[in-house]
Amino acid sequence: MMRELTYCLSIIAALSCLLFSGAHIASGQTGISQQPDAADSSDSNTHNLASKRTYHGEVEPLLRAHCLECHREGGLAPFSLEGFAQAKAHALTSLQMIQQVSMPPWPPSARSLPLQHERCLTANEQQLFAEWVQQGRLAGHPSLPSDNTISAVTPQTIQTKRPPLGEPDAVFELPSSFEVPAEGDDIYLYVPIPTGWAKDQWIQAIEFEPGVASVVHHASFMADTSGTAREMDAETKEMGYRRYGGSGFTASNTLGGWAPGAQPMAFPPGIARKVDRGADLVLQMHYHPSGRVEHDRSRIKIHFAKEPVQKQVVELIMANLDLQIPANRASHRHVAEYVLPVDVTIYGIAPHAHQVATSVLIEAIDFETGPTILLEIPRWNMNWQQVYVPRAPLTLRGGTRLRTTFVYNNSSSNPRNPHQPPQDIFWGEQTSDEMGVVFFDATTNTPEDLKFLQWHNQNRLTASREEAARHPRGKIEAQ
């Protein structure tokens, strides 16, 4: 019953949150303004043709600027908004979600760093959509755009929209469909795919397309030059191999990942990830049964760097693996810290947690100037996770302390709690377990610093894993 409820909540969140993406909302303007247009002020009881909001006049350009990135045939969203009929059919629900500030889905608070690709509507755009609904959702004429179209869909909208990546340079798909059962534990499946690359490749961006989004909890990408993943795959009869607690090999490079709500990220020119020649691309697929049998065949699209690469991106991981959340605790804080051993530049920040997490705060604490909030998500939703990209790359000097604070609600008041009645929850890979980890896409000033940073970060993770192993799962003692 609880899995069915969780599945329904995921679908509702996807339907309610995926509709709009775009411009930065004016601070403090969270509702729908009902003030009349200046064109209507001379006679509030009369609406001539020029004052009417229409689909072809104003709404279609707004949807094209904000929505069709996802809401198109073959897109990530569960339905298309291409065309008047679809926009009209979903108009009332869309307006309700806008008024509830549930849509567009943008979890970070205003205290976060300025971020790229903010999915927000301006106050004018909110009012435009509300007026279109209130005036009867008129179609208008395709060849007669309204005089208000240009002013309503602002230049800021177009500038903040995520730019298209163009045609990929390589596409890799799961060799065959994988059957995800209706019930049972989560599945961690590792699938090695030979790249066949005869030279090193620099990766500017990766797009992930889940075959069946309702069962893909998340996906991670890595490269293997040792052949170990391919050997473990050969020992099983099915595609890939199943494994908990890690991939079973040391990745030559990590390549990021995907979670619900994520959109592709492209690094600036001259910045890229590296994949060694001859490497296997390994997809880690985390499947979560949804209540019905599904057959997934996800794929990724890879975009190579088009300009000479000056700096290599690596992945930093900040986590305190000794996570224990007592049952019936409505507000449990969990802190992880990592002190940077060298100067770094941050290009992306990606927190990850499961269902009882309620908020996350990520800070950088300079030993002279004090703390700076990098990212705050006051209402965590597992169905909306992504890499958050600062508008300008963030440089932090060695000695800076990174700190993340996750808060969890492991009580019966949390409708997303997978355990009813609540029970103690620990760090784990099942969706019914929990996590609290932050991934940073980072570069350093020199190749030597890069190697040291990678070693240092892995060393700290190993120490955290060993510390967590000293506290095996069991009844959490009262504190």
From TrEMBL:
Residues 1-25 form the signal peptide. PROSITE patterns: PROKAR_LIPOPROTEIN (PS51257). Keywords: Disulfide bond, Signal. It comes from the Bacteria. The keyword Signal applies. The keyword Repeat does not apply. InterPro entries: Cu2_ascorb_mOase-like_C (IPR014784), Cu2_ascorb_mOase_N_sf (IPR036939), PHM/PNGase_F_dom_sf (IPR008977). Residues 30-49 are annotated as: Disordered. One of its GO terms (molecular function) is oxidoreductase activity, acting on paired donors, with incorporation or reduction of molecular oxygen, reduced ascorbate as one donor, and incorporation of one atom of oxygen. This is Copper type II ascorbate-dependent monooxygenase C-terminal domain-containing protein.
